[in-house]
Amino acid sequence: MAESILGKLGFRRASGVDEAGWGRTLAVAVVAFIYFLPVLFIIFTAFKPQGDALLVPPTLSPTSLFGLIPDHFVFKPTLENFGSVFSRSMTPDGAPEATGFDRYFFNSIFIASASVLLALVIGTLAAFGFSRYPLKGNDTYLFIILTTRMLPAIVVIIPVILMFRVVGLSGSYLGIIMLYTAFNLAFTIWMMKSFFDELSPDVEDAARIDGSSGMRVFFKICLPQVIAGLAATFVFGLILTWNEFLFALLLSGPDTRTVPVAMNQAVSSGGRGTDWTLLAAIETLFLVPVFLVTFFLQNHLLRGVTFGTVKR
Amino acid sequence: MSTIELRKVTKRFGSFTAVKDVDLSVAAGEVVCLLGPSGCGKTTTLRVIAGLERVTDGEVVVAGKVMNNLPPEKRDIAMVFQFYALYPSASVAENIAFPLYHDGISGAERTARVNRVAAILHLEHVLDRLPNQISEGEKQRAAMARAIVRDPNCFLFDEPLSRLDVELRQTMRGQIKEVLQGLSKATVIVTHDQLEALTMANRIAIMKDGLIEQVGSPHEVFAKPANAFVASFIGTPQMNLLEADLKTFADGTADMTVAGISLAIRTDAAVARLQPGKVTIGVRPRAFTPTDTGDRGTISARAELIEPMGAETLIHARTAAGADIRVVVTRSQRVKVGEALNLRPDPRQTHVFDGAGKAVRS
Question: A287 touching B, CB under 8 A?
Fold first, then answer.
């Protein structure tokens, strides 16, 4: 009896690889929601009036869901916080001033995309070389490339700062982009090499015989086959770079500051304690670009790499 | 002229010699099959012709030009790969058109050519699809279409039919033969399937361990195998190879001991040149005639296993000394398991191989 009810709810063990029943889907949705709660809480906080942020018990929902949620858990959503991200009064009773956050968002987007794209271009070419034209001791080179990612940032930061000081790259776009590119390269080369390794060499041989030069084989035959890999590498690199804090804190100047650094300074300056609704608003805005990129590339991310090249 | 010539071609990978001193010439319009067991170097030979492997020694001459140092894209050769190697991100039409981009052919001419070969190979209905959206047979034909769409120096096929099912393989065999006949190009086909080689080739080159063992017409390699390897490799069921001890030879009859039985069999006159000693006797399963009474010209054996094959019946028989003999008889001849057989080999189809395995033939 109990079994048949569970069965109807979709809890029965599916044979084969059919789509999951409603019961399982619901169970997974509940777990997923628990994981999503902190993010949701931040997003809701961004819409709360300033005074609501520290209420105990906290307000939980912007709507009462037709009377389902008691009134003292409901807050009145406002866009005020998003406005103060870009412009607010810095002193009590002072006139609103521009905060420069438009610039910081541009910096984040520009620096992250420039360094990830640069790493993708250089890394993909390098990966193709490592995959198709191996050097003597190829694996050693690859290992050495990976070692650049083995030390935590804090360990290498002092020599990096010194180098940047000496050559005058501190606080410049070029400096921070080069640094992020170097850090993304290791990851890009390893990722892309494994994608190239998966490709059938026969297809490239065929293209050679059909009259293509090595370059043409790379651009016309190999690259189209690893688009999914390029998308995946781009997104992972972008997320890592987008969220990077330490290098940005120590190497960016006032003009090249990225959002994570600016965020830190915005909420802790002025000696008035942490402005939680402002912080939540910045974080919410900060989520949007990466969220959009990942959302639009998700089809490529999910697609298998070897779509029907050769079945062996 | 569309010809291929290999002169003393050797290919070594490190210390391993994949192809050894191979000499082979393919005339225009001729189809030569490289046939041999796996790892015999036949695919390497093909890749050497294509330029995908560089020769260690010797000369590769295509269309009268030494091609040793030319990369594959400069050789103007068309090749069909075992796994088809279609470009996965391009449609079938784009796949077929791909080789034409390098010949400076205009867009309209390109479309016309693609449509023409698509019609020959019945691919019109799949031109817009991607390679992973078409069947195995269509992939094979698309790969073929890509090869014949331009006018190359020669054609190379690497196990072209190995991935098709039996029925499709028969149809495609006919189709490939038909298409090739209309093109009059030098063609090399690599295969491990002797039926494929025997049906499609003008000449067959049988390879083993990087060496060409024999080159000849399908008829020659079957009827006059140069050595014991070729004899056992060509023909199904396999030729019976029996260890024998040659005593004397007189009047076209060899006196010998085969598997403990003293026999007097008529053989080729060239056997007279041999010193008495170890030889190998080769008799095809269809070259035996079962007789009622045994004499010194017959081998006696006992039927152990009967395999009806339709029109014929395959009998596995064993001699008193333990040698296995395969005999094929017509369906009307009923043989029971355990029955004693007296098998008379046809003297014109009895091959004698010397101690080194070389055929002794006048």
Answer: no
A215: contact with B, CB 8 A cutoff: no
**Is A136 in the B-facing interface, judged by CB distances under 8 Å?**
no
Q: Which CATH number characterizes residue B173's domain?
A: 3.40.50.300
ipTM score of complex: 0.81
Across the interface, whether the CB atoms of B79 and A206 are under 8 A apart is answered: yes
Q: Which two tokens stand for residue B181?
A: 């006949």
Q: What is the pLDDT of residues A143-202, one digit of tens each?
A: 999 888 888 888 888 999 999 999 999 889 999 999 999 989 999 999 999 999 988 889
Partners of B341 in the β-ladder: B301
* Residue A132, C-beta contacts closer than 8 angstroms, at least 6 positions apart: A196, A204
Cis check for the bond before A289: say yes or no (omega within 30 of 0): no
CA-based nearest distance A304→chain B, Å:
13
Residue range(s) occupied by CATH 1.10.3720.10 in chain A: 101-302
**Measured distance CA(B16)–CA(B39) in Å, rounded:** 12
Taking the alpha carbons at both ends of chain B, their separation in whole angstroms is 36
Architecture in CATH of A101-302: Orthogonal Bundle (1.10)
Distance CA B107, CA B94 (A): 12
Of B77, B83, B88, the CB nearest to A209: B77
B62 and B203, same domain (yes or no): yes
Which residues in chain A are contacts of B102 at CB distance < 8 A? 210-212
Domain count, chain B: 2
Nearest one of B283, B286, B305, B284 to B352, comparing CA atoms: B283
Place of tokens 């086959």: A225
The pTM of the full predicted model, rounded to 2 decimals, is 0.79
Task: Judge whether B306 and B335 are in contact, CB under 8 Å.
Answer: yes
From the candidates A133, A209, A305, which should be mutated to test the interface with B, based on the most B CB atoms within 10 A?
A209
Strand order in the sheet with B253-258: B261-266, B253-258, B240-250, B277-283, B350-353
pLDDT, tens digit, for every residue of A71-97? 778 888 888 889 888 887 777 777 788
Run of H or E residues at B61 = strand B57-62
Containing domain of residue B95, as a range?
4-233
Examine the domain organization and report whether B322 and B196 are in the same domain.
Answer: no
Q: Name the residue facing B99 among A210, A220, A225 (closest C-beta).
A: A210
Q: Is the Cα dihedral A265, A266, A269, A271 positive or negative? A: negative
DSSP one-letter code for B185:
-
Distance to chain B for A307, nearest Cα, Å? 7
Residues B333 and B202 in one domain: no
Q: A34 in contact with B at a CB cutoff of 8 Å? A: no
- Distance (Å, rounded) from C-alpha B350 to C-alpha B244? 13
Q: Kindly state whether residue B100 falls inside one of the protein's structural domains.
A: yes
**Is there a single domain that holds both residue B257 and residue B216?**
no
Mean model confidence pLDDT for chain B: 90
